Amino acid sequence: MHALASVHGARRVVLLLGIPCLLAVTVNLLRSHPLPWVANRPYEILHDCPEAARTAGVISPAEALQKPGRILFVDSRSRVEFLRDHAEGALSVPYDPLLPPREQDLQAIRARRARWILVYGSGETAQLAADELATAHLTGVLRVEGGLAALHQAGVRSSSDSAQEKQR
Amino acid sequence: MNRPLRAGPRLVVVPMRLYLGAIFIYASLHKIAAPYDFALSVATYQILPAPAVNLFALLVPWIELGLGIALILGIWTRIASALASGLLLVFIVAIAIALGRGLQLSCGCFASQQAAGEMGIATLLRDVGWLALALCVVALDDGKYGLDRFLGRPAIERRAT
Questions:
Q1: Rounded to the nearest 5 degrees, what angle is found at the Cα of A45, between the Cα atoms of B53 and B117?
Q2: CA distance B23 to B111
Q3: Scanning every residue of chain B, which has its alpha carbon at the shortest distance from the alpha carbon of A2?
Q4: What pLDDT does residue B160 have?
Q5: Which of B51, B62, B156 sits opposite A4 (nearest CB)?
């Protein structure tokens, strides 16, 4: 008797699930743009923006130039801005608010074997870029106050200066 | 021996049943209207393997709709509420996993990821509450106040109660 009841129950379960599934298949077939049963490509899932766990210090351009040991300037502005003008010998590592620093950029910075990594850029992004580099376990990371203009005023040569000299 | 329940407790189940049915129907509508948005919501949980995401997104809203209609009209109410409980349990586990992983997303229950607010413990507790209601319907509904009364239960079930 219980077996008979469970057969009835099972039939109802099949109907309660089967009818909606049939409707789902039918309606999807009738859509002008049906959703494929298996996605053609993986869905783009947004992830949380990277948050820097360390805060880089701040230094004035004059103090930066007096630092003992090898110095590396890191330009956190966009690639276009970097190509227009940058501090001589600077490395371009454009800041991306959505992604952590690229491994190849970190390797390029490490390859310079600089004692001090001085990050400059425009506005708050320079600090955020410096914080990200400090979080990526680079040591001696500091943000230069005033950006490229302040560095030029302090006597740091710009890429355009050296290009003009070469033309002469 | 099962002692028959008085009309009171059985009658209480009716608003529970109607409420759950309305919730299920309402939850299914936007998913049926915008299956891609729901598929994106499902994918955002990062629980199902990629090939299963669209399948889930296409079938589950219609199952929700079917169960919602069955609960409101009182068709095979106990089985429908048992299936609704199972579905709610799946949602609860998914939400718990997402919260445990620290994912910041909307549950996708009633609106797309973009339109809905971020889910939290309150979302989980809400679903647990609905699961409790669904289990009450499973336990207490006797089919008197719905179409079950006219559809009739098999003789074997009638004799068992």
A1: 95
A2: 13
A3: B156
A4: 47
A5: B156
